[in-house]
Amino acid sequence: MSTCLVTGGAGFLGSHLCDELLRRGHRVICVDNLETGSLANIEHIRNPEFTWLQLDIVEPYFVDEPVDFVYHLASPASPIDYLRIPLHTLKVGSYGTHHTLGLAKKHRARFLIASTSEVYGDPQVHPQPESYWGHVNPIGPRGVYDEAKRYAEALTMAYHRAQGVDTAIMRIFNTYGPRMRPHDGRAIPTFLRQALSSKPITVFGEGAQTRSFCYVDDLIRGMIALAESGEHDPVNIGNPDEFTLLELAQTVIEVTGSSSEIVFEALPTDDPQVRRPDITRAKELLGWEPAIALREGLERTIEAAGADVLVGAGR
Ligand code: NAD
User: Fold this and answer.
1) Which residues, 6+ apart, have CB-to-CB distance to 162 below 8 Å?
2) Per-residue pLDDT reduced to its tens digit, 236-257
3) 185 and 136 co-located in one domain
């Protein structure tokens, strides 16, 4: 049994990670300040091997007991959040990552950072391999998130090279599943909320921009595989099946049996036109690839979360 510290453990991905680590018999210390996460995501956990600490990792923090793995997920992740708290987003990526890497160093723990496909910006290479350095607007409104993550990756490699910390960098592509917040502004929870409440589905631009959507269970399996490998260089984890936003809206309408119409709204600033992971490295290094297709993942999300939660009732 290993002891795993999960920052951002009360968030969407973090809470699923806590569940899976506990299911595999590990001890879990969950750290979160509830800025964008919620106790509702972890209140079902009754396991004595689970500890919850309400902490803001922008301030230095310490853990008394030995730690074997540090999963660093804490960060606002949705545009709605990082546009609301831009300075906090930069501080979590910088100070928060410093403090968490320092903790991993002290405990001689394996450290994994949840980075993002946003480090590729509006990519000029398609699909995106890890060797692509990206095309990011540092001064646009999204720059606070993209550059915080790019800085956090640089910091991670510096702690690895200069301080000998055993690090991993996971570049996560769009992921969805139960416990996403209905109003977090990302495409799948928004479309599901609109479809299930028979409201118009709002597609940005002409809906021709593409995304790839990974179901959360696949992603968490890839995250643990990467943490338990010896790899230090970045690894993309995401589903390479690519859809236009219009195709996604139509699929959501079909899966929900909704009568919603599709309406079009202005594109947000610096919205990437394409997004699709090249997962060759994940396949070769980790033997990982996603198993759950979009339609099945949407059905699982609706079944696990319940339609009333997805439309935002009671949350
Ligand atoms: P989320 O907002 O649900 O979870 C983030 C968690 O971090 C929240 O529980 C929040 O309260 C916590 N947090 C934020 N600031 C903190 C601080 N200063 N101290 C302690 N806790 C803090 O988002 P998510 O979708 O679960 O994303 C988790 C991680 O994965 C993020 O680092 C995000 O950048 C990355 N990621 C997610 C996706 C995705 O599709 N979900 C894609 C790419 C990268």
Assistant:
1) none
2) 999 999 999 999 999 999 999 9
3) no
